[in-house]
Design a protein that fits this description.
- With 338 residues, the protein is mainly β.
- The chain is 9% helix and 62% strand.
- The protein has two helices and 16 strands.
- It has a 14-stranded antiparallel beta barrel with strand order 1-4-5-6-7-8-9-10-11-12-13-14-15-16. A two-stranded antiparallel sheet has the order 2-3.
- The protein is globular and about 80 Å long.
Length: 338
């Protein structure tokens, strides 16, 4: 029935089988077939989804600070300076609460209206001066033409640090994806963001990102992806040229379905940034190499509930000591989808 497009009959038959006392893993598989039947029905109707999630974890460097407590500054005659406790790396446990909602509404002729909002609040157990809150919203249009999908999204958001507004952004993202076949997809994307720092106008910047991506789905349920991009940030104030940079990056990752209820995922990232002008404190042009590693698993407790433990590792290697740091983060997230 599902293959023939008779989705309502298919969902009813699946539910009949589910009521016959089948094993849990088979029931989870049937839940996914039912969800697929509903997704097909939703192509011509407005769909609203939402989620709420809570996370608890440990962060070895909540403020992305350097591990050194003392460093010499060339711009001050190489005099040694002792970093304050809030400037060097701080480790702490944390808890966070997030929620969001998305809407997808067909407009006809292959056009779909997209929109979404999300928010996240994170509280550290003892280093509350580094507590953060953020909120984001987006709205856009998606157009499907045969194997091609075109998307344009407007985005805005705000980020708070220790209850003070730290950064705002507004931007626009464009993306083209082509489904080469049932298992291969390519895409290109471009994004512009206007970054504004209410208490540090000198850091205001125009940020551009452009890149390409590729994804492949293997027959045994393994999905792999790769992307490469170029990034640049240009300060909006002419006298702070050392804050601007050009860079590039790559991302590799994938996921594998271990069983009907468990998915493993992981990825590696690399980004190279070269800054435009000499830093007035370190008397050199800053250069960064940032490496990242992430892996974890998602366990579906039911069709609506899931739990995700994960571990991430970040190293930023820089020729300016104040920006040289490493960070390890382990967390467990409980999520409810609606």
């Amino acid at each position: 029935y599902l293959a023939l497009g008779e989705t309502k009959t298919a969902a009813a038959e699946f539910q009949t089988v589910q009521r016959q006392g089948i094993p849990a893993d088979v029931s989870m598989t049937i839940d996914r077939y039912i969800a697929e039947a509903r997704r097909i029905d939703d192509v011509n109707t407005t769909l609203v989804t939402a989620y709420v999630e809570g996370t608890i974890g440990y962060d070895s460097n909540v403020n992305a600070g350097p591990s050194k407590a003392m460093m010499a500054l060339p711009g001050f005659g190489n005099l040694p300076f002792v970093l304050g406790k809030d400037s060097k790396s701080n480790a702490d446990s944390f808890a966070s609460l997030g929620a969001g909602a998305n809407v997808r509404s067909p407009l006809g002729n292959g056009y779909v209206l997209l929109g979404g909002v999300s928010g996240l609040a994170r509280a550290n157990f003892s280093k509350d001066q580094f507590d953060t809150q953020s909120a984001d919203a987006n709205v856009g249009i998606m157009k499907t033409v045969d194997k091609d999908v075109f998307t344009v999204m407007a985005q805005t958001g705000v980020y708070y640090l220790n209850d003070d507004r730290y950064r705002n952004y507004t931007g626009l993202t464009g993306q083209w994806q082509r489904n080469l076949d049932a298992r291969n997809q390519v895409g290109v994307f471009a994004q512009y963001s206007d970054l504004h720092y209410p208490t540090m106008d000198a850091r205001d910047a125009d940020r551009w990102v452009a890149g390409a991506s590729y994804a492949h789905l293997y027959r045994d349920g393994v999905m792999a992806f790769a992307s490469a991009y170029y990034v640049t940030e240009n300060p909006q104030e002419s006298h702070v040229g050392w804050l601007g940079f050009d860079g590039y990056g790559v991302r590799l990752g994938g996921r594998v379905n271990y069983d009907a209820q468990t998915t493993f995922f992981g990825g590696v990232t690399y980004e190279r940034r070269e800054y435009d002008k000499q830093d007035p404190i370190f008397l050199t042009k800053r250069k960064d190499n940032q490496y990242g590693l992430l892996f974890g698993a998602t366990r579906f407790l039911s069709k609506d509930w899931s739990v995700t433990p994960q571990l991430s590792w970040t190293v930023n290697s820089s020729n300016t000591e104040i920006n040289d740091y490493h960070r390890e983060l382990v967390s467990v997230t409980l999520r409810r989808e609606f």
